[in-house]
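User: When convenient, might I ask for sequence and structure tokens for a protein?

AI:
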Amino acid sequence: MNFGEAINELKHGNAVARKGWNGNGIYIKLQKPDENSFMTHEYVYIDTTGLHTNNPDAPMDRVPWLASQTDMLANDWVVAE
């Protein structure tokens, strides 16, 4: 799917990922603030906590994410499990 379709999946509560990303277990998701949130607006974050890698220094985090031009033009987006 393309980036626009991936954004629609995020808006419907699904996680999405690119087939072209290095490593399995990486995805992005839309965070919607609630009464306990510090943020007051929706934002997209990347989750690498499930990353499968042999690199002991690879980050295993959840952090805000911005799409690159390559990400925006890619057609290899999939709904993440």
Summary: The two ends are 15 Å apart (CA to CA). DSSP finds two helices and five strands in the chain. The CA atoms of residues 45 and 64 lie 4 Å apart. The first helix runs from residue 3 to 11.
